Every structure is written in structure tokens, then in C-alpha cells.
Amino acid sequence: MPMFKKQLIILLLITAAATVSIFYTHYHTSSVSLENKTCITPSGEQNNTIVVYVTGAVNKPGVITLPAGARIVDAVKQCGGLSETADPQGINLAQKIQDEMQIKVPVKTSIETNSVNSSDKNQEKVNINTADATQLSKLPGIGPAMASRIIQYRQKNGAFKTIEQLKNVHGIGTAKLTKIKDRILL
């Protein structure tokens, strides 16, 4: 009998282990499925909207929610339109915006500022997340081709989160970044 009891105990242990394993696998798979569904559902909903921060010369600056594919002009409208001091030529209102982007609407420069010599005017800061090719070309060492690559990188990968990310653009290394980093904004 003792041998029979040992075999019975071993059989019960194996059955218990198999049962625990089945329940654990089922529970773990269900948990993972729920986690994945939780992750997918909100981002699926969020793919239809984007959130941006609008500052500068608008009537009601702040964080706003827009439909995906919206343009800067849509963000400006939602912020109450351009203020009287806004310089609409300083920003590309037709540019598509991306989630987490900051949009700064520039202020008109005064007559005194316009009379400053051209070397001071070239020292204006450029927002690399909103600037068009012409504005980017004002940066030292950035020509039309490099400006185009910056815009393409931005469209493909989203807004720059740090200035250092510019080094990911083909043709911008440490030396070029050092030359322009004091002249760019995010």
C-alpha cells in the first residue's frame, strides 16, 4: 500500500500543478489581452484628436484639442483668432499640426526693430517645429536643401522634443548644431 499511496500523491501533485498551470496561463492571457485592449482603445480614440499648446499673439492662448489633420489656422481660430499685434506672415498658417506641438504666433515687430541693421535681424530665433523652409534657411549653414530635410524629418517623426534631435537630420552634426542652437526654439 505505501507504494500505491506514493503514486497517488504524485498523481495528485501532477494534477494540481497542471490545474494551476492552466489557470495561470488562462488568467495571464486574459490579463494581457485586457492590457492590450486598454492600450489600444484610448490611443485609437486619441488618433482622431490631437492636443497642442498655442501661445503668442492670439486672443485666447492655451492648450486645445483639435481633430487629427488640423492646420495652424484651425488652432488659431479655436484660440479666438489672431490678436492685433500678431504677425501672420511670421507663421505658416497652412502647416499641418501634430500632437504635442507648441505653436507660437509671432508678434509684429515695431518700426524701431525694423530699422535695426541686417546683422541683428539675422539673429532672430526660429522655431524648428513651426518654421517653414524660408525661416529655417535664415539659420547659419542651413540652406534650402537642409531646411527641406528638417521639415521632412519633422513631418515623418513629429515635433522635435529637444534641440539635440536635430542631429538625427542627415547633414546636421555637432559642429552645425553648435552654430545654430542659440538661434532656435522648440
How is this structure best described in words?
- The chain has 186 residues and is α/β, with parallel strands linked by helices.
- It is built from seven helices and five strands.
- It has helices at 2-46, 72-78, 111-114, 118-121, 133-136, 144-157, 174-180; strands at residues 49-56, 62-67, 102-105, 126-127, 184-185.
- It is elongated, with a radius of gyration of 28 Å.
- Mean pLDDT is 80; it is low at 31-46 and 111-121.
Features:
5 strands, elongated, alpha/beta, 46% helix, 186 residues
What secondary-structure arrangement, pairings included, does this model have?
Blueprint: H1 2-46, E1 49-56, E2 62-67, H2 72-78, E3 102-105, H3 111-114, H4 118-121, E4 126-127, H5 133-136, H6 144-157, H7 174-180, E5 184-185
Parallel strand pairs: 1-3, 4-5
Antiparallel strand pairs: 1-2
Task: Describe the structure concisely for a colleague.
This protein has helices at 2-46, 72-78, 111-114, 118-121, 133-136, 144-157, 174-180; strands spanning 49-56, 62-67, 102-105, 126-127, 184-185. The protein has 186 residues and is α/β, with parallel strands linked by helices.
Number of beta-strand segments: 5
What is the helix/strand order? Answer: HEEHEHHEHHHE
- Uncertain ranges: 31-46, 111-121
Q: Major beta sheet, specifics? A: 3 strands, mixed
SS class = alpha/beta
Number of helices: 7
